[in-house]
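Hi everyone, sorry if this is the wrong subforum. Our group has a chain we'd like a structural model of before ordering constructs, and none of us has done structure prediction before. Sequence below.
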Amino acid sequence: MTPVMEKRVIIVVLSVCFVMTLSAMHSQESGLPRARDLGVLVGRLPTGALNAITDVSGVRVGHVTMYEGDDVRTGVTVILPHGGNLFQRKVPAAVWSWNAFGKLAGSTQVRELGNLETPVVLTNTLNVGTAITALVRHTLSLPGNEAVRSVNAVVGETNDGFLNDIRGLHVTEADVLRAIQAARPGGVPEGNVGAGTGTRCFGWKGGIGTASRMLGVAGTTPVTIGVIIQANFGRRLRILGVPIPPDLGASPPGPGKEEGSCMIVVATDAPLSCRNLRRLARRAFAGLARTREVMTGSSGDYAIAFTTAWRIPHGEQNRPVVVPPLLGNNAMDPLFQAVEEAVEEAVYNALFAAKPMKGYRGRKLSALPVAEVVSLLRQRGAIKALRKPGIQ
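Answer:
Right subforum, don't worry. Here is the predicted structure as tokens:
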């Protein structure tokens, strides 16, 4: 082995150790190992250092978790493409509705203009209006926005009414603003947090999940794709292609048919046009489909994708938009693979991080029986060995 090859090997080893260390730190935030820590390896592409949407430079995530008394199990999750004035420095964006049984506020203007001018807020179905008002107030309050008279607030939702007193409208404008103020780069807590506090997924406790992929694209520097999901959907779960029996474990999943939704937010630093962002958002559902046996008409499934690679100044008719060289159509296949893998893994992370919960009117949801799932996957040959001790 030449000195140059030895140096490359050392760099690769150190990089892998760094990623594994950050992943371990990240999993400790929920107190539970993530899917990858237990050998559930999705796809072939490498993850980012955090295996989270915040691996895309500049992206920030904030949660407000509302766990109050016996009946309040809800919250807010906010995704910021960058830490500046988003209204004045919009980012290119696109929306895709796989099944539009839901309320994605602001989606029509994103489709029409191809940009995002507020943070993306995720919350429960009946508090979408509250979140819109909070986003408007936040935007109007920013220095430089004194003359603003129109704001396209983007708010997604899922229905957490099984565990949460959703009719109580417990989320306030102050809660949304707190989530915005709490938004930070770095590790993203998963499971029963923020907008995932009261969700259920495949009959088990659902929640927030995130993942990322890094890849090389010809003619560009390496790019990152990160996703975050609000998992509140599904009847029959598959993991790595293996059907997971609904009666697996000592505590079977909760009753009732699928009556939820899934919100997916995709971030990338790849220089993409709004049209190719729309194509990227659409491919997110290929990853979602790998986790479920049935996709029904009662699940509202949406994806919104944005890129941090360039900015669109407000009032661009008076100021030229500086657009970097954009990736062409033929360069999209690796990005499609990346988003499919990341979404699939984010679903598993949401389930692995979620904990059992009792809520509204005494209703209960069990957590996914992770030990039994790992054992089943090993029996079926889907995973070969554990990557972290503690689950047998």
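For your construct planning: The chain is about 25% helix and 25% strand. The domain at 39-318+326-379 is CATH 3.60.70.12 (L-amino peptidase D-ALA esterase/amidase).
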